[in-house]
Specification:
- The chain is built from 8 helices and 15 strands.
- By secondary structure, it is α/β, with parallel strands linked by helices.
- It has one domain: Vaccinia Virus protein VP39 (Rossmann fold).
- It is globular, with a radius of gyration of 18 Å.
- The model has no long low-confidence stretch (mean pLDDT 93).
């Protein structure tokens, strides 16, 4: 573990180390923002230094905007990063129990030390393993979730590598409860960049949606049931004030694609 004070990615590099999977870097910007990098300028996670549970990146806001439709109680997070999704859920949904899966213990350690992610919370369990192994174990144990969040990337100096889900969508779907939802972050403004899109449309016939974000990311949403009932104006206002998340900004652009 090494601490640095040097410029990188337009900010101040405060931490850098490597494990068998690559480089992990933490960068501060004007003592306001902090970001996690895996060896290139792409921000894998980000945090406001003055409010660590507030969602910084639009794609995380879009993924969690679905909590305005249904309050989650059992959540599976595939890909920890800096823990943005986890921190928001723990802070705002006091009944939520979370299983968080990441291949890299070093990433979890950095999320704890530099991004205020709790390590000893009775509602949060970490599983340091390949997500494929976790899917097998969870299915064998017949675990069920009402929300599955997938933000899986590997990276090197040449750019980000999306981890393929094609042959795993069926086993992920089997972990969803009766009213379950699954959100997948796509590091592309075009949902067609999702390699498992056809498989998703086949397995979730009629309940696959797109949430456009910012031209950089897109969210694919698959649900066990058709989304028909949306909160009223008053309910949306209450949710957005309570959670500091403008869910309507994303859900107003939700469109069914298959």
């Amino acid at each position: 573990m090494k601490n640095y004070l040097m410029k990188k990615y337009g900010g101040e590099l405060i931490f850098q180390e490597s494990d068998e999977h690559g480089v992990i870097e933490v960068v501060d910007y004007k003592k306001v923002l902090r970001s996690l990098h895996f060896g290139n300028e792409t921000q894998q996670s980000g945090m406001y230094l003055y409010d660590s549970t507030r969602l910084l990146h639009p794609y995380t806001q879009a993924m969690l905007s679905v909590t305005a439709l249904q309050e989650p109680e059992r959540v599976l997070v595939l890909g920890v990063g800096g823990g943005s999704l986890i921190k928001f859920l723990l802070h705002h949904f006091h009944s939520a129990v979370i299983d968080a899966v990441d291949l890299r213990q070093a990433v979890i350690n950095v999320a704890h030390e530099y991004f205020d992610m709790p390590m000893n919370n009775y509602r949060l369990s970490f599983h340091v393993t390949d997500f494929r192994n976790y899917l097998i174990a969870a299915n064998n144990q017949r675990r069920l979730y009402d929300l599955i969040l997938i933000d899986l990337f590997s990276a090197d100096e040449d750019g980000n590598i999306i981890i393929g889900l094609d042959e795993h969508i069926k086993s992920i779907k089997s972990l969803l409860g009766d009213n379950g939802m699954m959100a997948i972050n796509i590091l592309d403004g075009n949902i067609d960049a999702l390699s498992c899109l056809n498989e998703l449309k086949t397995l979730f016939a009629g309940t696959v949606y797109e949430i456009p974000v910012d031209g950089v990311n897109t969210i694919a949403l698959a649900t066990k049931n058709v989304l028909n009932d949306f909160p009223s104006e008053v309910e949306f206002q209450y949710y957005e004030t309570k959670h500091m998340l403008s869910a309507r900004k994303f859900l107003d652009h939700l469109c069914r694609i298959g």
